[in-house]
Each structure stands twice: as C-alpha cells, then as structure tokens.
From TrEMBL:
<dbReference type="Pfam" id="PF00440">
    <property type="entry name" value="TetR_N"/>
</dbReference>
<feature type="domain" description="HTH tetR-type">
    <location>
        <begin position="1"/>
        <end position="55"/>
    </location>
</feature>
<dbReference type="InterPro" id="IPR001647">
    <property type="entry name" value="HTH_TetR"/>
</dbReference>
<dbReference type="InterPro" id="IPR009057">
    <property type="entry name" value="Homeodomain-like_sf"/>
</dbReference>
<dbReference type="InterPro" id="IPR003012">
    <property type="entry name" value="Tet_transcr_reg_TetR"/>
</dbReference>
<protein>
    <submittedName>
        <fullName>TetR family transcriptional regulator</fullName>
    </submittedName>
</protein>
<dbReference type="InterPro" id="IPR036271">
    <property type="entry name" value="Tet_transcr_reg_TetR-rel_C_sf"/>
</dbReference>
<feature type="DNA-binding region" description="H-T-H motif">
    <location>
        <begin position="18"/>
        <end position="37"/>
    </location>
</feature>
<keyword id="KW-0238">DNA-binding</keyword>
Length: 186
C-alpha cells in the first residue's frame, strides 16, 4: 500500500495523492484503507519509511576512514531520495524518527570504533543528515548548484568564470561540502 502511494507521488507529485486515488490504484474502496492505517498521514509516513529503506546498505569502514564511509552513506541516501524526487518534501515532513535513531546509534558505534570522540558523534551525524536532506531538497526542486547569477555585475570576473566553468554540479558540490565539513571536525 505504501509502495503504491510512493508510485502515485513519483508519477504525479504529492498534490495528486489522495486516499481515493490510492484505493483506485489498489482496486479497493477508500474506507478499506482504514483497516491498515489510521489516516492519510499514517500512509504518508509509511511511504516516507519505504523511501528511506530504499537506501542501499554501504560497506564497513575501510582502514579507519570514517569520513569516506560517512560520505558514501550520505551519497547513497541522497540517491535514494532523488530516485523519488517529487516525494523528497514528503520524506522531510514524515521522516521515520525511529529508523533515524537506530541508524544514529549504529553510526555512533562505528565512529567510536574509529576514535571519534563521543562528544562529536551526534553533532557529526546530525549535520551530515541535514546537509544530505538539504542537498536533496535543492536538487529535487530544481535549484541548480552554483548557477550563474542573475546580476553578474555584482561579482568579480573570477567568480563568474568559476560559476561558468561547469565544474560544480549538484553531486560534486554535495560531496565536497561534506568532505570539507567532516575534515574540519575530524
């Protein structure tokens, strides 16, 4: 049922989702959906959970390089979100908190094993999570990374050249932002 909700949102956007639409897609009457979910919000929360669970597992830390490990995980999660770009706002609004807590607990254990001080672990994880969500939101809503400015006369020629170079797409900006942040706190 949640997967069908995701399919509707992927195809036509969140505004197209309704209980009647979902029921028709499933070949049932809308009131029967309440046998499984309390309300529309619960269905959307489960749809968000399905999307988050689509994130591929990433391998263990190699040679204590927890920074690359976290970046790889964030890239995988961002990719899973962008596979459902129209649903990214839905995931943000209905993020499965319990899944996030379990992931954070697991990641804290990994970071501790790599020598990251306990006082920094949750700060690092929450910051990476927020950067990942923010990057996915920007990409999903069509806000390009480092786009040419609308008032170029306000920038130096060097900045304009950098923006015009095409070197900074969304993926590179995301990875390099994470790397710079993690190296500064690592």
């Amino acid at each position: 049922m949640a997967r069908a909700a995701v399919e509707i949102i992927d195809a036509e956007g969140p505004a197209a989702f309704s209980l009647d639409r979902l029921a028709r897609r499933l070949g049932v009457k809308a009131p029967s959906l309440y046998n499984h979910f309390a309300d529309k919000g619960e269905i959307l929360a489960e749809a968000a959970r399905v999307i988050v669970l689509d994130t591929p597992d990433h391998p263990d830390v190699v040679d204590g390089d927890w920074i690359s490990w976290l970046i790889d995980g964030a890239v995988s999660f961002r990719g899973a979100l962008l596979e459902h770009a129209r649903a990214v706002p839905l995931v943000v609004e209905n993020f499965p908190q319990r899944l996030l807590e379990r992931l954070y607990a697991q990641h804290c254990r990994v970071l501790a094993g790599c020598g990251v001080h306990a006082a920094h672990q949750m700060f690092i994880l929450e910051a990476v999570h927020r950067m990942t969500i923010g990057s996915a939101m920007c990409a999903a809503t069509g806000r390009p990374a480092m786009a040419a400015p609308t008032a170029p006369e306000e920038f130096t020629p060097e900045v304009i050249a950098t923006l015009s170079s095409g070197e900074w797409d969304d993926d590179r900006l995301f990875v390099e932002s994470l790397r710079a942040f993690l190296q500064s706190v690592g």
